[in-house]
Amino acid sequence: MKxxxxxxxxxxxxxxxxxxxxxxxxxISADKAYAKExxxxxxxxxxxxxxxxxxxxxxxxxxxxxxxxAHKLIDPKLPTVLVYGHYDVQPADPIELWTNPxxxxxxxxxxxxxxxxxxxxxxxxxxxxxxxxxxxxxAMMSSNELPCNVKFMIxxxxxxxxxxxxxxxxxxxxxxxxxxxxVSDTGMLANDVPSxxxxxxxxxxxEVEVTGPNRDLxxxxxxxxxxxxxxxxxxxxxxxxxxxxxxTIPNFYDDVVELTKEERAEMAKAPFSIEAYCKALDIESVYxxxxxxxxxxxxxxxxxxVNGIWGGYTGEGAKTVxxxxxxxxxSMRLVPNQDPHRITELFKNHFESIAPKGTRVKVTPHHGGExxxxxxxxxxxxxxxxxxxxxFGKKPIPVRSGGSIPIVAMFEKELGLKxxxxxxxxxxxxxxxxxxxxxxxxxxxxxETIPYFYHHFTEMSK
Length: 462
Description:
Helix content is about 35%, strand content about 20%. The chain has helices spanning about 1-10, 10-25, 35-50, 125-140, 165-170, 220, 230-240, 260-265, 275-280, 295, 340-355, 380-390, 405-415, 440-460, and strands spanning about 55-60, 65-70, 80-85, 105-110, 115-120, 150-155, 180-185, 195-200, 200-210, 215-220, 305-310, 320, 325-335, 360-370, 370-375, 395-400, 420, 435-440.
């Protein structure tokens, strides 16, 4: 891998410039107004893979946005690594909170990233992390040090639930056959504390609508006489947690796997400063379910959060109305053994049951996903651990993430493969938020570490 690492060192500036070009394209999959830009991004990813030395590069059409596939098969006797990533990004709203336009990337130094970080939507999630794999592959190809076969599957609908990926995987099992799946769409504890994600929470995402009168009403003439959907919705949402911040939906916790004291003690060994955590978020204290630590609340416990709420008049000045309707978007993060379909049904039944007379409730399920756990005794995990140790000079810590990557469980079901989650982002990177960024250190370190994974996985698979 010496020649690979030398190639990376000599091409760092170009690698950053090429990522910046990719980040300039607003590939927002949730907004149809950006459909052409999403497709343009797929084409640019495809060209990058061709330039890197991949064969059989395809832009595979789906009912939604295309999936970019490519491979380099050097010997059928060697193991095969399937790399997954996504090129679509979250909407950039609220735009006014960005310090630079979200699709005009700039590099700025920060306290956490003194060497600089790229500020742009998608910098970390997931263009920056996905592009590390393209550049690492290019480096191995250019130095003639690719030790095994590699396949790429880069999609454009991850941020909207990967609706068409499952069918693509189901219909292309032979094309996607491999020995392990490699994903970089997670993070690590700190730049000097490498870690590997070994668990992901599942997801149930719903939209609720509360309807009262058949039209907006004058709040003076009708206030106090009819149910106000906005007031009612707020009460209903508030009732979903009790005084211990536990979720009140009946049977919600039935299938939750409780970790042993020993397992929780191992988790607690990961370095974590509550003071630094609060300072980074500019909050006085943390908040959450009683009897669990902040790290546990964000990883091994299920949650219910309102992601958006609206209704009535929100424009400038005053308009005294009782709105006919009120809306909210709600996500529930799930832990192993919780089934997203069952949880969605439990939520729907409960939310409809607590609506007072004089209102009507509609619950619309959106996307969801299964939780997943990656074993730390697999060849894939061990190879990743050795790769981090070689690149960082210290052994990585296994951690469970609070985020969701629903396709991980789907990959195991359809392809029979475990996924190794080699993430290089930080919690402070503001993914899904204004001023998302990705440290140059993290971008380079990912490109340097990935080839070591290929080397160790190939050696350990013999």
